[in-house]
Amino acid sequence: MDMKDLILEIIEHIESNLGQEMNLDTIADKFGYSKFHLNRIFCENVGVTIYKYIQFRRLSVAAEKLVTTGKPIVEIAYDAGYQSQQAFSIAFRQFYSYTPLQYRRMEVFIPLLKRFTAQNIMISLYANINMPFAA
């Protein structure tokens, strides 16, 4: 399996399990790599660690639900994998600078991180290959 395919499989796994308990150890075990190696190659190609990718994607999906649905905030928090509305609100405010309720009232969705695609990875790989030639 080449690096692009590995990164895409990891992303697919993360995206399919955003609402589930997930961490670097379980992902590394699933794909048969050490967590340090897996996190390094993921970060080199995606630009953030696996932990940050999961956190940003969960919060982005939650932000979209806040704006596009009338679901209670506590349900959105649980859907995003948070154990409590309080933990969700703290994380949400840290990254969006608004509480979930304030964000909902703005009625504008701004994702922290969109889903990474094969095209993003190819651009990243190309940039890494050509980086030494940049002056």
Automatic annotation (TrEMBL):
Keywords: DNA-binding, Transcription, Transcription regulation. The keyword Transcription applies. The keyword Glycoprotein does not apply. GO terms for molecular function: DNA-binding transcription factor activity; sequence-specific DNA binding. Pfam families: HTH_18. PROSITE patterns: HTH_ARAC_FAMILY_1 (PS00041), HTH_ARAC_FAMILY_2 (PS01124). Residues 8-106 form the HTH araC/xylS-type domain. This is Helix-turn-helix transcriptional regulator.
